[in-house]
């Protein structure tokens, strides 16, 4: 009996993976904006990985004799107040932003998923307690919470990342909880329970596959937000610390101080943040269109 | 209805208590307490003075007593003193809150004034040039951080018009014109960012509603296009829009933090950021709780507006 169910389930599951990739590819083909955002993200990831090769100069090397030089062939994005090449710093900045974004969203999503699975599967008192805690965390605006956490832990990149992860948890846990609750209504879950499957098995092989699509969609949108929050924290002076090239920090430290003499110091890092956030937002929309028929709009 | 409001208010109490516990705990895990940080900067302070200060601030008591005392202070609207400036927190809040409220309200109005008409135009002229322009503006609003927009506005206003944000806050009642000069640009920066999500939501719900039977009926009766769109379609499309606006209150309040910092407006946001930077924990915990309580209340108000917008919704 068990083997029959297993086989049925494995047959049902296999096409899900293929059809998801296919659905995404179809959506990318259908929507030029989605394809453009995917290309943009590939470009950013590529820039972050190969920063050493792509950056024309050392992002930390100072040359005071060419301070605040306007954009030119030699320095396409100009130089900052101590003669560092802005282009190289923007390229290296991609690494910080992506790194913080990926780790924060990874930790936040994983923790949110565990809490959501637990709440949605167990319901009852566990659910009630966890959800009230999540309500309480969500009552505090994300940026303020992140600011408070970072100030307590001491401002640096790692703590900014942790703070962002904590901000992400409540929303994610709620989405997973909802998805788990609706997945639980499925007949095959009932069947698995009836034949005596253990809870971890039911969760991992019957419920989890239903939850991955919304999680990935939300994660991709959160990536953009995480990059934005990191930039904001760095801009306010409690994120990445100088001299590390972070986009938000570049804007606040030199961008604002010399904005009238050297507007390029403010323009390029800001543009980089906006493009990265734009890329993740649009890509998240595309993923949602491809995977979540309920949210699909014509 | 009254019962519903009461129940929601009662439900909000445990949530806010938990939030306060989280904030309180957060402020207490600081490596080395706030006093050491404070005194470290001013230099030679003896152990005895430190102990005295600690006693004055109640930091020598057990945590549960400190928490209880703080709760009592919050409830009795007398949240103590800043440990940095020694100013009563109630006094600094009295100065800062109206400013942030004005900024937030103005930003909200600007956001809605941009978002709703553009969203409706986008929807009624789907796939036309104006639709694309509207959508691009919306997506850029979502992606441009306030601190970048703000910095750019200040930069180019200074380069092109030699305009710099006026220093020294003037209240609306003193001089409405100078006050608006101070607030309009920061509020527009914030409003533009807020408008993005609202615009997208307006567009998609209006698109949906325009396909409903009653809209077709309205057209069939020979009603004027404007009336069909604004009276029949828009009102029914507004519920998800109100949800989105409600969900953005947090974004709005966070946005004021950044915008106030950039435009040197002495509001709640800047007060909080400064308190966080100086680890002025009484100010931080009070401000964060005030924001949380405001958000919880506003969310209730948003839920109640649904009933007004859609008479089918009845709370009981």
Distance between the termini of chain A: 43 Å
**Into which percentage range does the β-strand content of chain B fall?**
under 5%
Largest interface: A-B, 45 and 50 residues
Q: CATH superfamily of chain A, called what?
A: MetI-like
**Number of helical regions of chain B:** 13
For the report, how would you describe the main beta sheet of chain A?
none
Query: What CATH architecture label of chain A applies?
Result: Orthogonal Bundle
Order of helices and strands of chain A: HHHHHHHHHHH
The quaternary structure here is: heterodimer
Which of globular, elongated, flat, extended, rod-shaped describes the shape of chain B?
globular
How much helicity do the residues of chain B have?
Answer: over 70%
Description of the structure:
The complex is a heterodimer of chains A (298) and B (316). Chain A has 298 residues and is mainly α. Chain A has helices at 2-30, 32-49, 51-54, 86-122, 124-138, 142-153, 157-184, 187-194, 199-235, 247-255, 264-291. Chain A is elongated. Mean pLDDT of chain A is 83; it is low at 1-14. Chain B is an all-alpha fold and 316 residues long. Chain B has 13 helices and no strands. The radius of gyration of chain B is 24 Å and the shape is globular. The model of chain B has no long low-confidence stretch (mean pLDDT 82). At the A-B interface, helix 5, helix 6, helix 9, helix 10 and helix 11 of A face helix 1, helix 6, helix 7, helix 8 and helix 11 of B.
């Amino acid at each position: 009996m068990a083997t029959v169910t297993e086989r049925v389930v494995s047959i049902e599951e296999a096409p899900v993976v293929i059809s998801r990739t296919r659905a995404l590819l179809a959506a990318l083909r259908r929507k030029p904006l989605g394809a453009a955002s995917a290309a943009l993200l590939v470009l950013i990831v590529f820039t972050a990985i190969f920063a050493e090769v792509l950056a024309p100069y050392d992002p930390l090397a100072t040359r005071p004799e060419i301070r605040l030089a306007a954009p030119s062939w030699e320095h396409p994005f100009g130089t900052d107040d101590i003669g560092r090449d802005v282009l190289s710093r923007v390229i290296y900045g991609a690494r910080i932003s992506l790194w913080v974004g990926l780790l924060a969203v990874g930790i936040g999503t994983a923790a949110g998923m565990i809490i959501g699975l637990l709440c949605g599967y167990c319901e009852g008192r566990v659910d009630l307690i966890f959800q009230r805690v999540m309500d309480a965390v969500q009552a505090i605006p994300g940026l303020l919470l992140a600011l408070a956490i970072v100030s307590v832990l001491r401002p640096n990149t790692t703590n900014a990342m942790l703070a962002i992860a904590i901000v992400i948890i409540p929303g994610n846990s709620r989405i997973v909880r909802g998805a788990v609750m609706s997945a639980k209504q499925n007949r095959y879950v009932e069947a698995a329970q009836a034949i005596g499957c253990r809870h971890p098995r039911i969760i991992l092989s019957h419920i989890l596959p239903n939850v991955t699509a919304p999680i990935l969609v939300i994660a991709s949108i959160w990536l953009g937000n995480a990059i934005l929050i990191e930039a904001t924290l760095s801009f306010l002076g409690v994120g990445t610390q100088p001299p590390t090239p972070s986009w938000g920090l570049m804007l606040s430290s030199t961008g604002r101080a010399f904005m009238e003499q050297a507007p390029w110091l403010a323009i390029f890092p800001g543009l980089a943040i906006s493009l990265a956030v734009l890329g993740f937002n649009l890509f998240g929309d595309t993923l949602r269109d491809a995977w979540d028929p309920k949210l699909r709009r014509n | 209805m009254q019962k519903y409001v009461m129940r929601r208010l009662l439900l909000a109490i445990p949530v806010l208590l938990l939030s306060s516990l989280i904030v309180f705990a957060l402020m207490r895990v600081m490596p080395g307490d706030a006093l050491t940080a404070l005194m470290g900067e001013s230099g030679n302070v003896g152990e005895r003075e430190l102990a005295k200060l600690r006693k004055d601030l109640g930091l020598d008591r057990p945590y549960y007593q400190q928490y209880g005392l703080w709760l009592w202070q919050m409830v009795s609207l007398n949240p103590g003193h800043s440990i940095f400036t020694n100013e009563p927190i109630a006094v600094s809040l009295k100065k800062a809150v109206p400013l942030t409220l004005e900024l937030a309200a103005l930003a909200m109005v600007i956001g809605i004034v941009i978002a709703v008409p553009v969203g409706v135009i986008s929807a009624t002229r789907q796939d036309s040039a104006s639709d694309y322009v509207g959508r691009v503006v919306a997506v850029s609003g979502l992606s441009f951080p306030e601190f970048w927009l703000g910095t750019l506005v200040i930069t180019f206003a200074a380069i092109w018009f030699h305009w710099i944000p006026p220093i020294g806050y003037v209240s609306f009642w003193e001089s409405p014109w100078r006050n608006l000069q101070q607030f309009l640009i920061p509020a527009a920066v914030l409003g533009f960012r807020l408008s993005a999500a609202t615009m997208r939501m307006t567009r998609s719900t209006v698109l949906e509603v325009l396909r409903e039977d009653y809209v077709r009926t309205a057209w069939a009766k020979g009603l004027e296009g404007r009336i069909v769109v604004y009276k029949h379609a828009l009102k029914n499309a507004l519920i998800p829009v109100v949800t989105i606006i409600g969900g953005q209150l947090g974004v709005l309040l966070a946005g004021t933090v950044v915008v106030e910092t950039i435009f040197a407006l002495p509001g709640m946001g800047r007060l909080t950021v400064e308190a966080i930077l100086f680890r002025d924990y009484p100010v931080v915990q009070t401000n964060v709780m005030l924001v949380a309580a405001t958000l919880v209340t506003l969310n209730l108000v948003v839920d109640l507006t649904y009933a007004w917008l859609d008479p089918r919704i009845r709370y009981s």
